[in-house]
What we know:
The chain is α/β, with parallel strands linked by helices. 39% of the residues lie in helices and 19% in strands.
Amino acid sequence: MTVNTDTLLGRLQRSSIAVLVLVAFPGALLAAEEIRVLNWQGYGTDEAWALEAFEAQTDISVVHDYFNSEQEMLTKLRTNPGTYDVVLINSAFTSVAAREGLIQALDLSRLNNAADLSPEMRDNAGLSHDGKTFGAAWVWGLTSFAVDTTDIDPVPDSIDALWDEAYAGRVGWRDDAVESVMLAAIATGQDINEPTDLDAIRDKLRALKPQIRTFWSSENEWNQFMSSNEFDIATYWSGSASRSKSQFKLPVEFVIPTEGAIGWLDGLSIATDAPHESAAYQFIDWMIDPAFYVQWDTDVGAPASANAKALEQLDETAFNRQILGDAEKLANVQFMGAMEDSQREAFLALWQGTKTYLQE
């Protein structure tokens, strides 16, 4: 066999150069690390400007997968081991995921910004399981209702407004079993986590029959229905109401009823078999950083941050300081707790039967 010495020499030279580059600049010839995040679509972690800044700072790129319900989120974790790094989980479902071994216990000392988390959020029982923390408190908010201020004046302060015959055929309601049962529990004076009279809740929900204009399932749908004047009053989330008002210029006002509202806390967790654990910690730390949150809330609209320093940096007129910073208004808020499968199934059965009745 004849060897072309010029070709061989060239190959050796190129190999030597490659080795020198790798020694001097270890990441020069390597692609940026990529993590996969599982979340609701359009919910903070997929803001393009934030991901670009995060990648520029860390050389870690982020791709997303989405879910439309907590049950779908759990199913995706169960059926796609080794796929996800970071997952958004409501505190009512964190212990379920932890108990099934779908997420791993967190070492909060690996998160620089964890020190600024409000203790009541950081240490929320819903983010823990078996004495260990499985979710880093991220954002929180309320579920009650919002009104179209061009059609409703003055703005009501009671949850019974949803049942007021003055708004018959003009009420929007989210198609969600847990949320529906809990709102009816508030309206009937019960504990949202341990209601004792499901018959009263069923009857209260059935009383919505003349009220319902349409059911909605996503923030985008809500905005479309409101902008097309499909309803005057509708169940909604506090952070979404802030966005609807500031970004979409809709004439809406979020209401915290005197009877109370549903409080919820969302945490960021790491999948048990996350392929990029270190990068996942870096991403979570970025998400709870005041620098990210303040821009998210100011430019886009967001739920309230679990980071006390982040809330302090908001403008005094910001929704999350004016509305969610009012201790008197929050006095009757009930936060969602962990829920056993049996209770969730009971809520689902109650709602499915009720929805059928409402649509007859």
